[in-house]
Structure prediction request, 169 residues.
Amino acid sequence: MTTITLVQGDITRQSVDAIVNAANSSLLGGGGVDGAIHRRGGPAILAECRKLRASQYGKGLATGRAVATTAGELDAQWVIHTVGPVWQGPGSDPSLLASCYRESLQVAAQLGARTVAFPAISTGVFRWPMEEAARVAVQTVRDADTTVEEVRFVLFDEGAYEAFAEQVR
Prediction:
């Protein structure tokens, strides 16, 4: 069974096997978590992302999918990039958000990762409500059939931490 832990802080400072990046579909960096991971991880991450774009992901990475690269200078072996859905308002389908967590765990398991750090995917500029995003994230991880031993949700602020803590209780 996978252990779920919560940390309030900076995901780029975590020491884990894999760090999940809330990427944009271009895989070429951006703002928020994506920008922070690319900045702290250095040019090796972007170089591998460019190779992915030049090969099987010419049109970018689809929402809900996941792919791994080196972690560059981060204290991890891999970065798993996943593209979260943009919240479309009440009634938005959470299945693609769940897919981000499920597919990231599948990629992590294929790599042999035992510890994985996740941000709160889609809750920044993609506007997914934190409480619902936390519910989807925690339930998806709990339901996952994975060899990953620890999933660490790394939440940027107290509000996000509390929303996830409510789901883990």
